[in-house]
From TrEMBL:
Residues 261-293 are annotated as: Disordered. Binds a copper A center. It catalyses: 4 Fe(II)-[cytochrome c] + O2 + 8 H(+)(in) = 4 Fe(III)-[cytochrome c] + 2 H2O + 4 H(+)(out). Residues 124-253 form the Cytochrome oxidase subunit II copper A binding domain. It is a multi-pass membrane protein. Keywords: Copper, Electron transport, Membrane, Metal-binding, Respiratory chain, Translocase, Transmembrane, Transmembrane helix, Transport. Residues 269-285 have a biased composition (Polar residues). This is Cytochrome c oxidase subunit 2. The chain crosses the membrane at residues 50-73, 94-113. InterPro entries: CcO_II, CcO_II-like_C, Copper_CuA, Cupredoxin, Cyt_c_oxidase_su2, Cyt_c_oxidase_su2_TM_dom, Cyt_c_oxidase_su2_TM_sf. One of its GO terms (biological process) is ATP synthesis coupled electron transport.
């Protein structure tokens, strides 16, 4: 009994050490346990799930190792006499059947809760942006705007010589309605810690919808994360997160007829992508023909 009590104290001290090594701030580097730092509210919710899962795994690991060492010490060989043999232990079998089930159920519950939060859609998002994927580039459409020269919504389309820049405001709810013109693509921004496979012909993208709230300004690379053909690796874009005022000024400049480059320059931003570069998909003969024309 004394040995069991001592073992329990050692296990408790191990758990306490895990909980105190990182201090009280659950947002510091230690508590991320290698999880990348995101820039959205949704990324932070997933980070909390990761932190809780790792702590739970550490507690289970400490308990398992403690039981292993206890068994090694308690049942070590003491002589040549054969120990008592037990065919089965029904209470123990019930325990090690129920305990893993409870652990899995708890992890499943919190996973579903976080997943529902990450995929939650608001009734009235602050901004709606249509994302159209095609082989092998992206088009970003701002449906609530109107260009002065054509009456169509403001849009930015990438090419083999231009990385498309998706301009979004920080601290606002942004809804992305993603669609594909040909094959399955995948909208992925690593700093969002989220990606969405874009399935063509899915009732005009009914299920290809998600929302984020970006909390940090900056330029973040975006990629296609689904093998979609010859130039899949070069199907990149850039997310440019700016203040709400800059976002409104950018859209106003685009509605007035300015290009993406000029509109970004007008709000003090780089007019071209800074996180990735375009890949010229033209063949040598095509480039020579273009130069001759």
């Amino acid at each position: 009994m004394a040995r069991r009590s001592k073992l329990a104290r050692v296990a408790a001290l191990g758990v306490l050490a895990v909980l105190t090594l990182g201090g009280c701030d659950l947002n510091n580097e230690f508590w991320r346990f290698g999880w990348p730092e995101g820039v959205t509210d949704q990324a932070e919710q997933m980070r909390h799930l990761w932190t809780g899962s790792v702590i739970a795994a550490l507690i289970v690991g400490i308990a398992v190792w403690a039981l292993i060492f206890w068994s090694m010490v308690r049942h070590r060989k003491r002589g040549d006499e054969l120990p008592k043999q037990t065919a089965y232990n029904l209470p123990l079998e019930i325990v090690y059947t129920i305990v893993p089930f409870v652990m899995i159920a708890v992890l499943f519950f919190y996973t579903v809760v976080v997943q529902n939060k990450v995929q939650e859609r608001s009734d009235n998002p602050d901004v709606t942006i249509a994302v159209n994927a095609f082989k092998w580039n992206w088009q970003f459409v701002y449906p609530e705007t109107t260009e002065s020269n054509g009456g169509t919504p403001v849009s930015t389309t990438g090419s083999s010589t231009e990385i498309p820049i998706l301009v979004v405001p920080v601290d606002q709810t942004i809804r992305f309605e993603v669609a594909s013109a040909d094959v399955i693509h995948s909208f992925w921004v690593p700093e969002f810690l989220f990606k969405l496979d874009v399935i063509p012909g899915n009732e005009n993208g009914r299920d290809n919808v998600f929302e984020v709230t970006v909390r940090e300004q900056g330029a973040f690379v975006g990629r296609c994360a689904e093998l979609c053909g010859t130039y899949h690796a070069n199907m990149n874009f850039e997310v440019r997160a700016v203040t709400g005022e800059q976002y409104d000024e950018y859209l106003a400049a685009r509605e007035a007829g300015q290009s993406t480059h000029d509109a970004l320059e007008s709000i003090g931003q780089d007019g071209t992508a800074t996180t990735t570069q375009p890949f010229d998909q033209l063949t040598e003969s095509q480039r020579l023909d273009a130069a001759g024309n």
